[in-house]
Amino acid sequence: MATLAVETRGLSRRYGRRWALADVSLEVPAGSVTMLAGRNGSGKSTLLRVLATALRADHGEALVLGHDVRRERDAVRLKVALLAHQSFLYEALTARENLQVAASFLGRDAEGALLERVGLGTRADDPVASFSAGMRKRLSLARVLLQQAELVLLDEPYGELDPPGFALLDGVIGELRQRGATVVMATHLVDRGRLLCDRALLLEEGRLAWSGPAREMPAEAPGGSAHA
Amino acid sequence: MGNSRWPFVTAGLGLALLVWGSVWGLFYAPREVYMGDVQRIMYVHVPTAWNAMLVLTFAFACAVLSLLRGGWGWDARLEAAVEGGVVLSALLCTQGSIWARPTWGVWWDWDPRLTTTAVLLFAFAGILALRGFVDDPVKRAVWTAVAVVIAYVDVPLVYFSVRWWNSLHQLQSTPETVSRAFHWPLRINAFGVLFLMIGLVELRARLAWQRRAAESAPPLPSGVAVATGRL
Amino acid sequence: MERPGARDAGRGAGRERSRLSGFLAALRKDLLLQWRTRAQFVAVFVFGATALLLFSFAIGPDAAALRQHSAGFLWLGLLLSSTLALADSFESEVQHRALEGLLLLPADPRALYYGKALANVLQLTVLGVGLVPVIVVLYDAFTARIPALLAIIVLGAAGLSAPGTLYSAMTAQMRARNTLLPLLLFPLVVPALLAAVKSTSLLILGDPMGQLTSWVALLVAFDAVYWSLCGLVFERVVED
Question: Which residue in the set C166, C190, C236 is minimally distant from B142, CB to CB?
C-alpha cells in the first residue's frame, strides 16, 4: 500500500567538487500536487532528474511509487514522466512525428487529439526546428501526457509559456490530480504554487530547507513574485 | 590505495635486473653468427614485447573489473596500465626501427607483430586522449574501460589481418628465436622490465587515485555520505 | 570518496515490451531522421568523391597505378566520410537530449543501439555504392561481380558502423568530438579496412589464388565480434 509516491533518504549527488543534492530526505504523498521551490542552483532539477532515473544518486536511496530508483529503474521509468528543461525533441521531425516516435516506444498509438489539446493542432506537421520555445514546451507537455504516468515531474513548466499556456498547464495539472496522479513541480512562481499545490518543498544549496503545506510556504522564499 | 614502499623496492629490483641483463646481452653475450651485433637489440626488444602484451592484458582486466565492480581503484590502475602500455608500445616501435634500418635499409618493415603494435599504440594513445577530455570522473572511468575492452578484443583481429596482408611479401620478420646459449640475458631482462613495470604502474595508479580524490567533493559534513576510500 | 556501484540491475518490468518492437521503433525513427537530413548526406557524399579525386592527384595520372590502388582509395574515402556521417547520426540525439528522453520512456538501450547502427550501415552502404561509379571513372576500376561487390560494401559498412555508432554516442556527449571520433575509430577498424580493401581489390584486379573467401571471412568475424560487443556495452555509454 503505497501512500507515498516518493520517499527519499539521504539522497546526495555531486558534480565535481560541489554537492548538488546533499542528504535530502523527503516524502511526497500519493495523489498530491507538490511544489518544489528554491533558488537557481538549489538542486531542483537534479532532484527531479534523480527521481526520473535520468541521473544516479551518489549516496542515499529513493523509492518512487514503491520502486527503488537504483535497482528497479525500468519499473520507475514506466510510471514516471519528466518535463525537463531540455525538450527531448528531434528538430528535424514534425510535432506529430515526435509524438509518434515516443508512442512507438510506448507500444501505443499517438492520438492526434493530444496535439489539439496542447494548442498545436494547426502546427502538427511543421518541423520542430520552426517552433518557438513556448511551442516546444507545449509539445513536450503533449509527450508527457502521452506517457499516462502515475507520477509527473515538471521542471519549471511555466518557463517559456504565454498566458494561454499558463491556463493550459493549470488545466493539465487539475486533470492529473483528478486522475489520481501525483505531480511534483519545480517552479519559481511561488504565489501560483501556493494556490495550485497541496504541499511544498524548499531546497537551498542542495539541502531540504523546509517542507509543509503549500499555503504555509515561507513568504521570504527566494524567487517570490518575479512573475505575476 | 596503500602507502607502502613495495613499488619502489620492486622497481628498483627491476632496474637492477635490467641493467645486469642489458650489459650482459649488449656487451658480453656471444655475437650472433648471421646478423651480427644488431641482433643484440633482441635482449631488450623481446622483453619489451612480452611486457607490453602483459601490461595491456592487465589493462583489459582492470577495465573489466572496473565495469563490473566499480570503485576508483581499478580505474586508477587502468589509467596507469594504459599509460604503461603506450610507453612500451612506443619503445617497441622504436626498437623495431632501430633493428630494421641496418638490416633492411628501411625504417619500417611491416612485420605483422610490429605493425600490430603500432596500431595498438595509436588505439591506446587515443584512449588516453579520451580520458583527457571527459570531465566527469564516473563517466571517464566507464568510457575508458569500455574503450579498453573494445581495443583489446581487436588485438587478435588486427594481428591476423596484418599477417595475411603482409604474407605475400617475404621480408624476414624480427627474429623470434635466440639461440639457446643466449637465453639468460633475455630472461633476466624480461623479469627486469616486469618488475620495473609493476612498480611504476603501481606508483602511477596511486597518483591517479590521489587525483580522483582531489577532484571529488569532500564528504558531506552531516556524515551520511561516508567516503569509504575502498581500493 | 566513493564511486557509485558499477552496475545496478534495472531490468524487469520495462523489458517485457518485446525487444524486437523496440528495435523496429528505433530503426524507423533513425531512417526517418536520415531521410529528413538527406541534404547533409549529399554533402558527405560530395566530400567522399572529392577525397577520391584528391587521392588520384597524390598518385599522379598513372592509369595502371591508379587502378592498382583503387580499392584502397574507395575504402579510405568511405572511412573518412563515415566519420562525418556517424557524427551526424548522434547530433540530433544530443541536441535536446532526445536519446535520454527515449531511454526514460523506457526504451531498451540495446534496441536503440541496433536501430541506429543498422540505419548507419544502410547510409554507409549507399555512400559506398555511390562512390563506386566514381572509382570506375577516375581509376578505371571495374568489376563484373556486382553482387559480390555489394556484399563486401555492406559487410565493410557494418564493420565501420558497429564501433562507429558506439563511439559517436560517446563523443557526441563531449567537447572535441570531431577529433576524438576518428582518433578512436581508425586504429580499431584496421582489420575491417584491410579485409574490405583486399576483397574489393581481388574483385577488381582478379583473384587467381582464391583468397577472396578468407578475407570475407575475416570481415564477417570482425562484424560478428563488434556487433555483439558494442550492443552489450552501449547502455553503459549512454546511461548515467
Answer: C236
